[in-house]
Amino acid sequence: MAEETWEQDSTEEKEFEDEVSEAAEYSPKSDFSKAQIVYEQVGRCCSLRSEEMRPGYSTHITDKIGNIKMIHIPDARKKFIGAVDALMNVLSPEIKRLRKPEEDEEDYIAEINNEKENIKKKYIYIEKIISIKNGEYILAPSGRKYLPEVGDILTAGMKVISKGIMGENKVEGIWDSKVNAYYNELLGLYDILFSDLNCLIDELNYFKQTMSF
Asked: Which ranges constitute the DSSP H helices of the chain?
């Protein structure tokens, strides 16, 4: 009787495995073509880079009945940089495979990331907060370092709140010129990166009709 139970359980398990196997198979309509994905993303990068590389900004518009609405115009530089990042992520296995055996496979990606960090360090904002030391008001680093967005309200110094009391003097957009300088410099790096990725794609012959996997 125990033997019959084992045989029944084994049969049911086999049927379940067959069902899973059949469900995992892709139909011809769902074939994955990485070449097609790369092709579309390269086209998107080219389209975005063909636009004027304008910083993002907010503005107001008035509709026909006099209502005022605020709209935000996206930063064209950020859109292009994001598109190239996506392309690099898609091609990361190919970047690793094309490294020479004696080289670190992460060299190229690490090099790009280091360059990005070096650029960011030049324009980073070091947050400061009001503190009292030896009975005097001072602006002391909070420990937070970051790149603000355009239009952010940041501490520019101290101001008198009332007699004997100081507060933070906050100014809107005080870091805007540095933020724009950061994205302009980063854009130059991404132009080089996009060029390198195109050379890689050419080496792989990705856009030949026979390329599909």
From this structure: 2-24, 34-49, 76-90, 92-97, 107-123, 176-204
Residues in contact with 75: Cβ distance below 8 Å, sequence separation at least 6, in sequence order: 54, 55, 56, 150, 183
Residue in 132, 142, 122 with CA at minimum distance from that of residue 189: 122
How many angstroms separate the first and last alpha carbons of the chain? 50
Q: What is the DSSP string of 14-65?
A: HHHHHHHHHHHPPPGGG---HHHHHHHHHHHHHHHHTS--PPPEEEEEE-TT
The model scores a pTM over 0.70: yes
Element (H, E) at 158: strand 153-162
Place of tokens 């132009």: 191
Structure token pair of residue 112 = 């790009």
SS3 (DSSP) at 130: strand
pLDDT given at position 61: 76
Reported as a single tens digit per residue, the pLDDT across 78-114 is 999 999 999 999 998 888 876 555 555 567 888 899 9
> Hey, CA dihedral for 99, 105, 111, 112, is it positive or negative?
positive
> Among 122-126, 150-154, 160-164, 179-183, whose mean pLDDT is lowest?
160-164
